[in-house]
Specification:
Keywords: CBS domain. The protein is an alpha+beta fold and about 150 residues long. It has helices at about 5-10, 25-30, 55-65, 75-80, 90-100, 120-145, and strands at about 15, 40, 50-55, 105-110, 115-120. It has a single domain, classed as Roll (CBS-domain), CATH 3.10.580. Helix 5 (about 90-100) crosses helix 6.
Length: about 150
């Protein structure tokens, strides 16, 4: 299975924020609806170029040092600038390894420099569980047929 299979099921909607938005605005977007865990930072107006990513985790960690003043900072002040991405052709195994290696829960999907979607660890786990269920069913059927 590939990332494109996940996007085919969940869709290619990506929630974005502008780098000059305040953290208060970003937090409101994250809270929803729909409640989401991360926003892609894209300033180009077409949601194509990924300038960064900001997650709930980024905001909480920054809150530990800036307290209530955090809400007045901009997304650019807090976002992760070196964004780990994946492509639609990446395998689920590759994406799981990348998420684990970098400790990221969300990966923007980029193809030819353009933002194509966003996947979360939840999406990956859901897909992997479906694969495992199918594999178990096939193995059960093979066992039953051979006995």
């Amino acid at each position: 299975m590939k990332v494109s299979d996940i996007l085919r099921i969940k869709g290619d909607t990506v929630h974005t924020v502008l780098s000059w938005n305040t953290i208060a605005e970003a937090a409101a977007r994250l809270a929803g609806p729909p409640a989401i865990g991360a926003l892609v930072v894209s300033d180009d107006g077409f949601r194509e170029r990924v300038a960064g990513i900001i997650s709930e985790r980024d905001i909480v960690r920054r809150f530990a040092t800036d307290g209530a003043g955090l809400t007045r900072l901009t997304v650019a002040d807090v976002m992760t600038r070196k964004v780990v991405t994946c492509t639609p052709d990446d395998s689920i195994a590759e994406v799981m390894a990348s998420m684990n290696r970098w400790r990221h829960r969300h990966l923007p999907v980029v193809e030819n420099g353009r933002l194509r979607g966003m996947i979360s660890i939840g999406d990956v786990v859901k897909q992997r569980l479906a694969e495992m269920s199918t594999e178990a069913g096939v193995l059960r059927d093979i066992y039953i047929a051979s006995h």
